[in-house]
Specification:
The structure holds three protein chains of three kinds. Chain A is of the alpha+beta class. Chain A has a domain at 79-207 and 242-351: Cytochrome-c3 Hydrogenase, chain B (Orthogonal Bundle), CATH 1.10.645.10. Chain A is built from 16 helices and eight strands. Chain A has a three-stranded antiparallel sheet. Chain A has a three-stranded antiparallel sheet with strand order 6-7-8. Chain A has a two-stranded antiparallel ribbon with strand order 4-5. Chain B has a two-stranded antiparallel ribbon with strand order 1-2. Chain B has one domain. Chain C is of the alpha/beta class. Chain C has one domain (12-195): 2-Layer Sandwich (Beta Polymerase, domain 2). The chains are: A alpha+beta, B mainly alpha, C alpha/beta. Chains in contact: A-B, A-C. Chain A binds chain B through residues 1-2, 32, 34-35, 40-42, 56, 143-150, 153-154, 157, 213-214, 217, 219-220, 222-223, 371-376, and chain B through 43, 46-49, 80, 82, 142, 144-145, 147-148, 224-225, 227-228, 231-236, 312-321.
Chain lengths: 391, 348, 225
């Protein structure tokens, strides 16, 4: 590499200084600065990670985000309540339906109305379907990041079955925008229940396939076991949630522990935990969670109550004054909305607490001293969606 | 100087042109076949998709379309790259493959260098040149990902050259010659415990050496699970990050042609090369100058299929795990293999 | 929902949280609110902010950090930005009306901590005077608060004393202004008003009876008015 001229160095340093998000100095005596992202295959979009390396060992690490910040917290302030779901759909774009639910539930809590049981059950079913579609992609994606290409294609193939079911019910593959305050937009189409059950069987086959192809692979295990260990205390202090928390041995699932009106308590399923807290544990927990989700969906489909899908709600929705916090266990972890209403057509302030934002805050802590390939493993196993970080 | 082929007297320039054509065919034919058969089709079926289907029947012309695409692309040399080395690197990689093929026999008279006594020694020596090309590419690109990729490739080469050489020594001891034609003949006319119905292909009697050699080949080629120099999820694409157009195409050809070359070497060392067992046919007949390359290509395809099957199934090691595997597992085992082979050779 | 004064529901577990915090912090607890069965809000003074966090973490066992954010209680001068940008802005009230737990100032910092064993969470609020938007950082209390405080810093302009590294998290370094403040205009809306505001989608009510719906709408109007 040819040396930089002094002018080039100055220009570069100035550019870095102007970008106030960058913590690490341009070039120092110790180590090499490696810029991972904002366009890098391992960062799922536009997360940027500045690594300070000694050889291939990470001395320090600084995640920089904001390349996809869309300002949803500001945008929802100028929208009416029914319009908000369109926006929040785009937060975690792989499990879109799950994003709508906590916001709608918060609005319902403020309005003191409750969706009829059938709507709650269908919400739960679609919630779990979006979890399956989200996490099955994670399974393939994690294998891809470790270097096994084929698993990703299987994941995409089988996720398509789930997306088909979501599309059949809601009309949207990715962004259903199906939830309404007080219920749902439509009832389920004819024949959907049988199709979904067949799909759940396919997903269970997919889990078996992934267990033998990826999880059982010795190279996969050497790459993930003991890599990126996060103890339970650290996970709690950083506010990590979802499978990342459960993989650290914390037996905590909002679906079981704080159900917010949805139908999870109506069926028999297990909260999966793993004591290790390493990348393998996070992969394993998620894979098992797909199985549990298929069980939940199957049971809910069997017991789906009849009845209306919409509560009595006024034509023009005005939410009474108040504040409400509702969090649900989304595919990526705990997602919560703190909704402040001043009695108008739209929310006064909405704080969106997303799972990935808290989950990846631990990256600087956990990547210290690991190698570059492990950074990729850890990023993949923490599983974030850029929209979920930047909002 | 003159030579004869099928009884036809050829002058020196004719022989030279034939050889040039031959080596181009030897490099490009297996490379193209590998790309189409394995990269486009086998992998697609493995991954439940069809692969290219538009260009030609079953997408068989896709390769030409790809070549055309790469030739049209702008040829970019990064501003701060070391331009000379940057341009040199891909040619170095491709020329390695040409040099490897020189020593590989394709028939009783189908050799580029006849009666090459140091054959396998020479092959192992020149096959390392490609790593120099990779290192050059990594260093001259002025890109940190390329640099890490190049350095990983160098580390990998040193670690895997040794088990490869040690695995070959077992074969050489058993065949009693370094000449690759001699190794082919030793397998064709050999016998296993007095049974000579199918000769003595060394992948049976040297099974440990065969496995180690194939693992080392996988690492030498930089195929998954040893593709750390490329590692597209970590290093973008490692040392070829900055390459585009023709130079990228050269790296691409180099990758698959060297897969072909190593498959040819492995086929020669362990599967009996161009020959069939001597009990089946008279190997000296001129017809084997035609059949030989076909038999060879079949064996190369089998081994290439193995290489690419593994490539698209397994995840990737970490660099230090690779080194650990080489130095603590493969090298001791291959040393033990040499010892056992020597004892048995003396005993029988 | 606000609890009606004549039927105060009792939530002993959450009342116990408030009592405990009051005994630990004394006068520093200046306001509280309980949503029985759901949630509890506790408002503390600015000086006791870090102590409140430590008490919640160590003595109450609320070790799980959920989020930290802020609320700007100034009514937005732009409303829902449904007006044409060329028109003058309508007269908007500048009266500060704060929510659960009360409050006196325009800016409030709010944080939520959670206890996994008790399966409850606390919302902690704190008032910040307009002339000094600063507060002690929670960084020694919860490690995860780091990015949340950086976000609040850039979005609301609130300074966290003791945070070593309050750089912008999302916005470019040279960005001016604090976007989540209510007086920060949403420029996209000022350029072109949102067409969707008039287009309120009719909800598919179960009865699908237009009259009933109309009646309901009137009722709600009355209730809201």
């Amino acid at each position: 590499m040819t040396a930089l001229t002094e002018r080039q160095q100055l220009a570069y340093a100035n550019a870095q200084a102007a970008d106030g998000r960058v913590n690490l100095e341009f070039e120092t005596d110790e180590g090499m600065t490696l810029n991972m992202g904002p366009q890098h295959p391992a960062t799922h979009g536009t997360l940027r990670i500045v690594l300070k390396l000694d050889g291939e060992q990470v001395i320090s690490c600084e995640p920089i985000m904001g390349y996809m910040h869309r300002g949803y917290e500001k945008l929802v302030e100028v929208r009416t309540y029914p319009q908000v779901t369109t926006l929040v759909n785009r937060i975690d774009w792989l499990g879109s339906f799950a994003n709508e639910v906590p916001f709608i539930l918060a609005a319902e809590k403020l309005m003191d109305i409750e969706a009829p049981p059938r709507a709650q059950w269908i919400r739960t079913i679609l919630f779990e379907l979006s979890r399956i579609s989200n996490i099955s992609l994670f399974v393939g994606d994690m294998a891809l990041h470790i270097g096994a290409i084929s698993a990703a294609f299987y994941a995409f193939r089988d996720r398509e079955y789930v997306l088909n079911q979501i599309e059949a019910a809601t009309g949207g593959r990715f962004h259903p925008n199906f939830d309404r305050i007080g219920g749902l937009k439509d009832d389920l189409p004819k024949g959907w229940i049988a199709d979904t059950k067949a799909t759940m069987n396919k997903i269970r086959d997919f889990c078996d396939e992934m267990e033998t192809l990826v999880e059982g692979n010795e190279i996969f295990q050497t790459r993930t076991r003991g890599i990126g260990v996060i103890p339970a205390d650290v996970a709690l202090a950083y506010g990590m949630s979802g499978a990342n928390l459960r993989a650290s041995g914390v037996d905590w699932d909002l679906r079981r522990d704080e159900p917010v009106g949805l139908a999870w308590n109506e069926c028999d399923w297990n909260v999966i935990t793993h004591p290790d807290g390493d990348s393998f544990a996070r992969f394993w927990v998620r894979l098992q969670e797909i199985r549990e989700s298929t069980r939940i969906v199957d049971q809910l489909l069997d017991g789906l109550p009849a009845g209306p899908i919409m509560a009595k709600v006024p034509r023009i929705i005005k939410v009474p004054e108040g504040e409400a916090w509702v969090a649900t266990e989304n595919p990526l972890g705990e997602m919560g909305y703190y909704v402040v209403s001043k009695g108008g057509l739209g929310p006064f302030r909405v704080k969106i607490r997303t799972a990935s934002f808290n989950n990846i805050a631990v990256i600087p802590w956990v990547t210290r001293g690991v190698y570059v390939p492990d950074v990729v493993t850890i990023l993949a196993s923490l599983y974030f969606i850029l929209g979920d970080i930047d909002r | 100087m003159s030579a004869s082929l099928f009884g036809i007297e050829l002058s020196y320039w004719q022989v030279t042109s034939l050889r040039s054509l031959g080596i181009l065919a030897a490099v490009l034919l297996p490379a193209g076949t590998f790309v189409y058969l394995f990269l486009f089709k086998m992998v697609s079926f493995m991954q439940s998709r069809l692969g290219p289907m538009e260009a030609g029947p079953f997408g068989s012309m896709q390769l030409l379309a790809e070549v055309g695409k790469f030739l049209q692309k702008e040829d970019i040399v990064p501003e701060r790259a070391d331009a000379k080395l940057f341009k040199l690197a891909p040619y170095l990689v491709v020329s390695t493959v040409l040099l490897v093929y020189l020593a590989v026999p394709f028939g009783p008279e189908m050799t580029f260098v006849s009666n090459f006594d140091g054959g396998i020694f020479y092959v192992l020596a020149v096959s390392s040149i490609s790593a120099l090309g990779v290192l050059l590419a990594g260093w001259s690109s002025a890109n940190k990902y390329s640099l890490i990729g190049g350095l990983r490739a160098a580390g990998q080469l040193i670690a895997y050259e040794l088990p490869m050489v040690l695995a070959v020594i077992g074969v050489v001891i058993q065949a009693g010659t370094l000449n690759m034609q001699g190794i082919v003949m030793a397998q064709a006319s050999g016998s296993i415990f007095g049974f000579d119905g199918f000769g003595n292909p060394f992948f049976l009697t040297q099974i440990i050496a065969f496995v180690i050699f194939m693992i080392a080949v996988q690492a030498e080629l930089g195929q998954t699970p040893f593709d750390m120099p490329i590692a597209e999820s970590e290093l973008v694409t490692g040392y070829i990050t900055e390459y585009s157009g023709l130079r990228f195409l050269l790296f691409f050809i180099g990758e698959f042609a060297s897969a072909g070359a190593f498959a040819a070497v492995a086929a020669t060392l362990f599967l009996g090369g161009w020959a069939v067992p001597a009990a089946w046919a008279d190997l000296d007949s001129a017809i084997f100058n035609l059949l030989g390359p076909l038999i060879m290509l079949t064996k190369m395809l089998i081994l290439g299929g193995l290489i690419f099957f593994i490539r698209f199934t397994f995840p990737r090691f970490r660099e230090d795990q690779l080194q650990k595997l080489a130095w603590t597992v493969l090298i001791p085992i291959s040393l033990a293999n040499i010892l056992v082979t020597t004892i048995l050779k003396v005993a029988f | 929902m606000e609890e009606t004064p004549e039927a105060p529901a009792v939530d002993e577990a959450r009342q116990a949280i408030i009592d405990k915090l009051t005994t630990e912090l004394g006068d520093a607890v200046v306001g509280s609110h309980i949503q029985p069965g759901h949630d509890v809000w506790v408002r503390v003074t600015r000086e006791a902010w870090r102590t409140a966090g430590l008490v919640a973490r160590d003595q109450l066992g609320y070790r799980y950090f959920e989020y930290l954010s802020a609320i700007d209680w100034l009514p937005s001068p732009f409303g829902l930005s449904e007006n044409s940008p060329t028109d003058a802005l309508p007269e908007a009230s500048t009266e500060i009306v704060t929510g659960h737990g009360g409050g006196d100032t325009r800016f409030q910092v709010i944080a939520r901590v959670h206890s996994l064993s008790q399966k409850m969470g606390i919302h902690l609020k704190v008032d910040l005077p307009d002339d000094d938007l600063s507060i002690t950082s929670w960084l020694p209390v919860f490690a995860g608060v780091n990015w949340h405080e950086r976000e609040v810093h850039e979005m609301f302009g609130i300074t966290f004393a003791g945070h070593p590294y309050l750089r912008n998290l999302y916005l470019p370094g040279e960005f001016e202004g604090h976007p989540l403040r209510k007086d920060f205009p949403l420029l996209a809306r000022l350029v072109k008003p949102w067409p969707g505001i008039v287009d309120v989608e009719p909800m598919p009510a179960s009865g699908d009876d237009a009259e009933a719906e109309a009646a309901e709408a009137t009722e709600t109007e009355e209730a809201a008015g």
